[in-house]
Amino acid sequence: MLVNIKSRENPNVKLLSKLISSKKARNEHGLFVIEGLRGCADAVKEDVRGNISVKSLFCEEKAFDNLKNALSGEENETLLNMEIFIVTRDIINRISHEENSQGIFTVAKKLHKNLDDTCLKTDGKYVVLDHLQDPGNVGTLLRTADAVGASGVVLTNNCCDIYNPKVVRATMGSMARINIFIENDFQKVCGVFSKLGIKTAAAVVSDGEEIRAFDFSGGVAVVLGNEGNGLEKNHIELCDKKVTISMKGNIESLNAAVAGAIIMWEMFRKQVNEDE
Fold this sequence. Notes:
With 276 residues, this protein is an alpha/beta fold.
């Protein structure tokens, strides 16, 4: 269903604007926004696969044509059954946080799940983000987890909002393809993994087992800490193991997203070699 909207005072436009700018609104409605042609096209494709529930689209006429061209016949059939609002460039410029918006937004239901032992695999490979605050880092780590085939990502200890537009943009469509869990009680997170026999490994700057020698076989969850302070001491102690990326240069630590990418690669390196 296509509906033309020309007024910024339209209630649907007002809701879209709130969902983009307000965490409170996203929590109240259980919705979030994806902006950009690639992200919106991915959302429609993943809706067809049952990985995301798209509620509506807002776009300019040209952007809508571009979206249709990016989709298959089946995906276009799904698209045309969605609620689609055709809006003006003036509305786009008022609500977008992008300098050069592509003029298209998708509103979708939130994707994360609550963490419990029924939704984890005993031999799974997981990444736990503990109090990460930078949206770019969180988004990049979610995208990397999707790239390597991680079983899921757990956010704990009040990480930044994963539905923040900066996080969503950094994931480049990966959010619908990776299992995301939120549980702010870190002790509970460790307890769930322990119950299933999944070992937890704290990523630390020093005094951990060197990453290339670490045994990533079986179920394992690597815990990455805050960008500025790393992991809290008591959180390190709650983990079963410690793992360290040894460095030959003159810096003490790596950016959280870079360190996470290296660790995830090592988690799956043996599996990749076997596949080759």
